[in-house]
Design a protein that fits this description.
The structure is a single chain. Helix content is about 35%, strand content about 25%. By secondary structure, the protein is α+β, with helices and mostly antiparallel strands. The strands form 2 sheets. Strands 1, 2, 6, 7, 8, 9, 10 and 11 form an 8-stranded mixed β-sheet that branches. Strand 6 and strand 7 form a beta hairpin.
Length: about 325
């Protein structure tokens, strides 16, 4: 399997071709096994090549570097990162247990889970029991958890709505998780913070209420071809508008076309700001070309982009541009 997506489990059609596909959402016990996440990490001493010390027994041994530890996956001794002494690993099974406690035991149903970058990043996507009624169709309520095993990031949990039919990730949270999610570092107090984070469930429901109100406001706002053209132009700017590169023209044209002909664009939402935002989201999730870089294939790069990178950022920017053009304040809406 390519270097970026190491293992994963996902329900139905995915934004990549790797991993185990299943027909229905799974419980924590099944998901952790199917996703290949039933492994643990530990901390090992770090040594500098050629640096030694002499023991009382006169044996010469490598000298451990004070203040640092290596994060090592115990199943294969893969070194995932180097961290400071205060770092405390949060194990994969602890993340699943956290989700179960957050949503209620037996109520969190896992839609996807997996590891990226050789186990350095792990994600879980759990579906909540109820749905959100939005213009043009229902939206499942999901919670996305991301964590790292290389010391590069915090343990983060945040809400992300996903359209039932087309799997469009309407992810406005990764760019601003502070107001809608919960984040904490890997330290000895992380366990206490995980227990405190159970109140995130109430905050998540509040987020979805606000999201529904915003979606309905966008669906009531008329949006024109000229406006979607301006949004597409700002998402894909050109140094010289008289000489717009073909790739930029194609990206703009794709968003404009999706504004009229996007997935599940019913008569109820066609020609509205909600359709405009969905056009941006659909372009990012399904139409945007992603190049293979650093040994990753294009499908893996797409998955990384949607979960952590430029894809999530572009959808956030698209939301901001559409709302501003429609005269809707995201700040007033709680975003």
């Amino acid at each position: 399997m390519p270097a970026n997506i190491e293992t994963c489990m996902i329900v139905g059609e995915a934004w990549h071709t790797q991993g185990v596909r299943v027909d229905s959402e799974k419980t924590a016990a099944d998901a952790i096994a199917l996703a290949g996440l039933n492994w643990r990490v530990g901390l090992r001493s770090v040594y500098a090549e050629g640096v030694t010390e002499v023991l009382a027994s006169l044996d010469t041994v490598p000298r451990a570097i004070a203040g640092f530890k290596a994060i090592v996956r115990e199943t294969d001794n893969a070194v995932l990162g180097v961290v400071g002494d205060r770092y405390t690993p949060i194990q994969n099974d602890e993340s699943f247990a956290f989700f179960d406690a957050l949503v209620g035991e037996g109520r969190a149903i896992y839609h996807s889970a997996g590891s990226l970058d050789g186990g350095r990043k792990v994600w879980l996507l759990a579906k909540m029991p109820d749905t959100l009624k939005l213009p043009g169709g229902d939206v499942d309520k999901f919670l996305l958890l991301t964590t790292t095993h290389d010391g590069s990031g915090a343990h983060r949990t945040l809400p992300t709505p996903i359209r039932v039919v087309c799997q469009n990730t309407l992810n406005m949270a990764l760019a601003g998780a502070g107001s809608t999610g919960f984040s904490f570092r890997h330290t000895k107090s992380a366990g206490d913070k995980m227990r405190e984070a159970v109140n995130l469930y109430g905050k998540t429901q509040s987020y979805y209420t606000r999201f529904g109100e915003l979606a309905n406001a966008l669906a009531k706002a008329t949006f024109t071809e000229e406006q979607i053209g301006m949004v597409a132009g700002k998402l894909f700017p050109a140094e010289d508008e008289n000489k717009v590169p073909t790739r930029t023209q194609n990206a703009r044209s794709s968003i404009i076309d999706l504004f009229d002909n996007g997935m599940r664009h019913t008569a109820e939402i066609r020609g509205t700001a909600w359709a405009a935002y969905n056009a941006v989201a659909e372009y990012v999730d399904h139409n945007r070309p992603t190049r293979a870089v650093n040994g990753r294939d294009a499908a893996d790069a797409t998955a990384q982009s949607l979960l952590f990178g430029s894809g999530a950022s572009m959808k956030q920017e698209g939301l901001e541009l559409v709302a501003a053009s429609a005269g809707i304040s995201l700040e007033a809406a709680g975003f």
